[in-house]
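Q: Is it fine to ask for two folds in a single conversation?
A: Yes, each is treated on its own. Send the first.
Q: Here.
A: Result:
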Amino acid sequence: MTHTEREILAHPELWLKTLELAQIMGDSLEELAVRPVSLVRSGSSYYAAQASAFYLSDVAGYIARSIPAGVYRPRPYETAVFISRTGTTTDVLEAAELARKAGVPRVAVTAEPTGPLARLADRVVPLSFVREESNVQTGAVTCVLLFFRALADRKAGKPTSPTLVDELRRALDDPIRDFDGVSHVVLLGSGWRFGLACEAALKAQEMAQLWSERYIPGEYRHGPIVCADASTLVFHFDTQYPRIQELSRAITETGARVLFARYDPLVELVRLQRMFLAIGLQRRLDVDHPRHTTQSVTFDAPPNR
């Protein structure tokens, strides 16, 4: 069994610990509801930040934005939340240093609570129970999403149910379908689910070296559908999209295969991780160490800011 597969299958335990952490830290992070929040990150965690910012805003009324670390500039009226699995990613550390110099309140969300990023923060959300050997983030990214979702749900007065973990366990027991011949994947999602679509598309690239795209559902008909054919798989995160049947018929007419979410969107992200892992293994790829990747992206040269 690969490290990546083992780490994907560890999700239920990780999610239980994440929900417990959110319960413990909920009161201490209450100021997030008072000040606007910037969620700052790169790569997988950027997409987690993108989805989390929308969820925080839509469900709990937070004023939240997500921004790539490489273009972050401190805003004195915001709290800055920096997200990094290893706590060593160069552009995230540089962004956190900018925030420190500007006197902006800083929160670090990291699996390394004593690492470089944590030392630049006023407060740390310690995801230290997430230990991944694969270069590809799986549990690390979903735990960030679940943590902020739990905070938003708590603020909205509807705490995230632990039955979500039971749903995840059922989904992990589902057999993995055969997707032989798929070389092009399109992920469709709106609202906070668009961030999930972006993250799933990245996993298709990292684990299976597939050509992947991500769109808000209605936008897919405005041009991108021209690339769909028999080698294309289109996945809908948004089963409630009002024109989903009409859109799906148009996609099917191209020869592409269409799949619909059957579980909670966050659970579906884990199912897609498993699917892209299976395709990568079928293609005899190194899913633990995809080519040209490392666990942490670091640079020696100073940035041109």
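Q: Second one now.
A: Result:
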Amino acid sequence: MRVLLTGANGFIGRHLLAGLKAAGHDVTAAVRDPDALRRPDLTTMQVDFNRDTDAVVWTRRLAGFDAVINCAGVLQSARGQSAQAIHAAAPIALFEGAKLAGVRRVIQISAISAEPGAGTEYADTKLAADEHLKRMDLDWVIVRPSLVVASGAFGGTALLRALAASPFRIPLVGAGEQRFQPIQMSDVVACVVNLLANIRINKQVLDPVGPDVVTLRQLLVDYRAWLGFAPVPCVRIPMLFVRSAARIGDVLGGPLSTTALKQMAFGNVGDHARYVDATGLHPISWKHGLNQHPAQWQDRWHARLYFLRPALRLALALMWLISGLVGFGYSPDLLSRMAASTGWATEALRIFAIAGCIADLLLGVLILARWRPPLLAGIQIALIAGYTAFLTWALPGLWMDPFGPLLKNLPIMAAIAIWAALEQDR
């Protein structure tokens, strides 16, 4: 079957892509950045759900396809990412385009929390696309998985692993009684592959959920044991502090957001027996799934680095911002010493210092905005190397200073390189 898979480079999408190809389907991966899927055996299509909200555009693209699987999604709107467009406007145009192109089979990957009571943009926009699809004369199925667990981690599962890996204590959101019904990624992939083969499952909303209802507390305890860290007690974090941290995360791009918090509080449970009856599939249990994929060293690194990434981002931003502000109060005596050493005019050095301060402030702002980290890292390293080379020439004695004003630049450049690597989610 010739299948168009949107969101093929996402957490679920990458596994679906592999599973569909393994099942023998001819899959075209529709993604915003085809270069992110560099595989010679893969056919890609460049799409942008932020802009592709015209059904006519999708009609042309869908010529010759037998089925469409929509797996595109974001947790919440951000710079250059509109949840309204990605979850509602573009999928609706995609569904209408499928109808016009004669593509009957449409599978929509939604979320179990896509309900009116969730109270988030994420849930509301997912629900809008689901409801539109329900009214269409197509062979549609809406798949709303619970917490999806895989050998890798992204989004919610990455946050859970990071909480579980916390040193000294496992922090709980409130009392930690939020309920989940985790399902293994392999079971989600099996569900979608089965739906392509079994056209009799039609015009249904399916909630793929595992057989176990697990609280947040138990999830974190189990994840910690799976990661191989020593057991530690759990500690309740008052909701006032959790909500404050989530609001900060909304602004600075931290590991926690208000949307994630609300989705967690709303719950992620469904009717396991109904899902089994509808599909004939039997998802494996929570702990059985963990045991199938033993944790590796990179899992431990990722869990421990998860909260360090925003801390490193903030530290680098503050370094540049404070350096820029303090630099405006440069010492005339220092400028005189540098002028004597280099033969430059004091006024020229003053202009050079002011330009450097402005550059420092701009870098601090761009780091907080998470603007093109690889490029920004190169600029920072080049600037620090330039500062270091100039000061080595002008004031070589700084290398022997006990406070190490130049020596410290070496670990700072290493930290910048590490920050750039950590900022690449995909």
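Q: Anything structural to flag on that second result?
A: Two points. The chain has a mean pLDDT of 91. The CA atoms of residues 32 and 48 lie 5 Å apart.
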